[in-house]
Task: inverse folding
């Protein structure tokens, strides 16, 4: 670090000395922290990436390059390693050597304590614990294909709540043939909502039954079928919503997750609900509806007409106690605006605190 010079006065000299001492202490702390981090990384089989600038792209690139190709090895220690007759946990050193391959390097823990891990039995496949474990996992997937969309809404009767629409593919479920050739099955669906601190905020679960005609079953295999869950949202903020579907016949589970933001409404801030977006049902009726174009999956095609809807909450009122709002629709693709409508007045209904907005939007044919 550079020395700081003053005008030679006692006050100036003392400030300069204090500043130099602070800089020296900061440098020592930095070097000490770096040495500690490097030591921890080395002892645990990792790497300590650092540089002379705040450009994170350099160590990130080094970390990514390090993961391009590797072998992961492990072993099970001899049972005598965990002999606890003395009640003391002995530290066992590990040494790994490469003898036959050139161009390779090895990293490993420097050792381990002779303390046997307590084996936790996995939850039974059909148990509530298995369903809860799948919901708590940060990973999506499973044996049943599930797609979902979660939306925030608010009504005078229910207050703020989160609606989750789940699309479930029938191919992962067990259907049995019932009366009149119908296909029937029974399952469970559960949803959890975690707050921004990772703590469980809300939960709900229910059993569902499906009884499908041969034609409905054929469409459910291709497009899935829709399940809906509602959960209260008592506090504003971001929520991590996770859904799990279980087939009761086989105990197979499928999961999905999505983030949804609940706005603050108590301070009379104007806010928007989630946006319902789907292709309208064709003239042939619900039997011809492609569920992939529904709000749960939102899979659309060129030439489709989209129907959208939303609710404006807490609009400001003029002296006549009427809201005067305008709306504009913008459509983005890969971060680029591809469509922008003209501004239009928002219609006012009987509830001036919740205005319904929406319309239709035609997708370009190409």
Result:
């Amino acid at each position: 670090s550079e020395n700081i010079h003053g005008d030679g006065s006692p006050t100036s000299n003392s400030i300069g000395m204090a500043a130099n001492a602070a800089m020296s202490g900061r440098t020592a702390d930095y070097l000490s922290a770096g040495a500690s981090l490097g030591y921890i990384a080395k002892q645990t089989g990792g790497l300590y990436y650092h540089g002379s600038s705040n450009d994170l792209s350099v160590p990130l690139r080094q970390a990514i390059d390090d993961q391009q190709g590797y072998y992961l090895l492990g072993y099970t220690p001899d049972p005598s390693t965990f002999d606890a007759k003395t009640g003391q946990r002995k530290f066992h050193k590990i040494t790994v050597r490469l003898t036959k391959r050139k161009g390779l390097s090895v990293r490993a823990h420097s050792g381990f304590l002779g303390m046997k891990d307590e084996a936790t039995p996995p939850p039974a496949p059909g148990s509530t614990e298995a369903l809860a474990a799948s919901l708590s996992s940060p990973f999506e997937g499973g044996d049943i294909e599930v797609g979902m969309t979660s939306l925030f809404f608010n009504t005078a009767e229910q207050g703020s709540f989160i609606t989750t629409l789940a699309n479930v593919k029938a191919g992962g479920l067990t259907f049995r043939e019932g009366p009149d050739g119908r296909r029937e099955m029974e399952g469970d669906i559960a949803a959890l909502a975690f707050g921004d601190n990772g703590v469980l905020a809300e939960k709900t679960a229910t059993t569902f039954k499906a009884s499908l005609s041969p034609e409905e079953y054929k469409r459910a295999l291709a497009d899935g079928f829709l399940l809906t869950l509602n959960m209260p949202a008592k506090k504003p903020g971001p929520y991590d919503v996770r859904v799990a579907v279980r087939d009761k016949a086989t105990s197979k589970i499928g999961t999905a997750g999505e983030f949804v933001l609940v706005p603050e409404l108590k301070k009379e801030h104007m806010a928007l609900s989630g946006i319902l977006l789907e292709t309208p049902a064709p003239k042939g009726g619900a039997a011809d509806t492609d569920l992939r174009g529904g709000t749960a999956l939102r899979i659309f095609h060129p030439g489709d007409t989209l129907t959208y809807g939303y609710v404006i909450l807490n609009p400001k009122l003029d002296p006549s106690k009427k809201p005067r709002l305008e709306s504009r629709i913008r459509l983005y693709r890969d971060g680029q605006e591809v469509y922008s409508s003209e501004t239009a007045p928002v219609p006012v209904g009987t509830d001036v605190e919740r205005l319904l907005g929406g319309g239709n939007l035609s997708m370009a044919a190409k």
The chain has a mean pLDDT of 79. The helical segments are 10-43, 57-66, 128-136, 214-223. Residues 10-43 form the longest helix (34 residues). The CA atoms of residues 191 and 243 lie 4 Å apart.
